[in-house]
Amino acid sequence: MRRMPVNLSWIVIGAAAIALASAAEARAAEEVTARVPFAFSVGAASLPAGSYVVREAIDDPALLEIVNTHGSEAAIAITIPADAVPGQTAAQPGLVFVKRGGEYFLKRLVTDDGSDREFILPRAQDEREIVSGGH
Questions:
Q1: 84 is in which domain, residue-wise?
Q2: Is 107 part of a structural domain of the chain?
Q3: Among 82, 93, 106, 133, which is 20 to 30 Å from 68 by CA?
Q4: At residue 44, does pLDDT exceed 90?
């Protein structure tokens, strides 16, 4: 019985194409859209009030992209996994802000699957919170 050689490179390319399509579908499902009625800061960027989409910037869940729905304002921010809030489950995905000294800061991305992300506050903001005791 004669064996036909199998070209494994085509199998690998086909599997990679399927994986990329699945990743694209998963990424679209992880987007959170929110209407923010006030100006806010995220990382080192200041953004005006408006409707925003928050999603992974690249294939790294630590980097999130915050883009207004018109595409005219955007920021990329570093995040860390958020601790679960005991006894609380998200009714729907959304954004959580903190207000300090008249400024709003994007603090948390709430997801429907429990993989919430915390935004890292700018260093100066962290230092002010430590000095003021978090108030």
A1: 32-132
A2: yes
A3: 82
A4: no
